[in-house]
Structure formats: C-alpha cells, structure tokens
Amino acid sequence: MLLTLRHSSVTKWLSAVLLALSLASNLAHANETTDSIATIEAALPDSMSLNGQITYVDFWASWCLPCKQSFPWMEKLYTKYHKQGLSIVAVCVDKEHKAALEFLDDSQSSFTIIFDSTGSIAKQYELKALPTSYLYNSSGQLVLEKQGFNSEETESVESKILQLLRQKKTLSKEQGND
To answer: Most buried in the list 22, 77, 164, 177, measured by CB within 10 Å?
Structure first.
C-alpha cells in the first residue's frame, strides 16, 4: 500500500487502504530486477512518477533499530534536495500496519512511504538485511546498493546523490529543459 505522509494518522491509514488496490494491480505489471526503478514505480499510483528523478529507495521495518536511525537522515536529504529532483521512497516490510504507523508517528517523514505487508516488492529485491537502500539515477538505472545504515557512511551517499543531481541538471541544460 502507498502512503504519502502529510496527513493525520487516520487519513494516512485510509489512504493506505484505498491505495492498496493500486499497489496490487500495478505490481502485476512489474517484472523488472533491482537494476531498474520499474518495480517501485509500478507500486505507485498512476498520478505519481519517478521519471527523471534521482530516487533513493529504502526498505525498512518498525522493529529495525538501524532503520529508526536512518529516518532523520533521509528526512534531511529529502528536505535539502527534493526541489532539485531527489525522490525518496521508503518501503515498509512490516506485516502489520499498526507498528509501522506508530513508528511513522514518532518520526517526521515527508517522503513517500509504501507498505509492502505481503512482501511482494521485497521478494523481487531479494533483501538480505534491513535497512537496504538503492539509489537510482534520473534514467532509472541502479547506481548504488547499500545494506544496513551507518551514520559514518552518510556523507559518501550524499556525495553520490549530489553528483547525480549535478549530472541531471547538466543533462537538462543540454536538452534545453532548464
């Protein structure tokens, strides 16, 4: 299920329930590997697109301590770079939404949250640890895969994001879109 966090908990829950149908139907069309952003895009409602965005995808669970540590950092990244073209999609693998919603109530997050309680997205990514993160360029190609969260490594990930945002801006100027 998809949930964009900018509403009250009740609204979040209702949005997630209503968009569950979109997730299930769109996932039927996703036969891509982690090398492409297509699997995540297929889980989003039709009104939302990652096309042309630098996208950081993070798989997490409410019980995962490193996941809890990563959320403030992802929020900082999102706030700092969203207007430049960074999207963050956090995929919750909790089987029950209650714990995930409590986790989300305790953490400030403006980025997109997808609930994958059936594990269908996580299965396609063949996760071995939580959190696991993937960084995609503006063409939707995988450029970085990372297991776990270590605050000492955030600077190198942010540097890679900045590099991709600069490349995106340069490409956009060359194509006359800026």
So the answer is: 164
105-138 pLDDT per residue, tens: 988 899 999 999 999 999 999 999 999 999 999 9
State the Cα–Cα distance between residues 174 and 86, nearest whole angstrom.
Answer: 20
Q: How far apart are CA 123 and CA 74, in angstroms?
A: 23
DSSP letter assigned to residue 39: H
Q: Which residues of 4-21 are buried (b: 16+ CB within 10 A; e: fewer)?
A: bbeeeeeebbebbeebbe
Asked whether the beta carbons of 92 and 3 are under 8 A apart, the reply is no
- Residue 35: its pLDDT value, please? 65
Distance CA 72, CA 160 (A): 19
What sections of the chain are H helices per DSSP? 9-27, 38-43, 65-81, 97-106, 120-125, 154-174
Q: What is the pLDDT of residues 42-78, one digit of tens each?
A: 888 776 788 889 999 999 999 999 999 999 999 999 9
Domains in the chain, start-ordered, CATH in brackets? 2-174 (3.40.30.10)
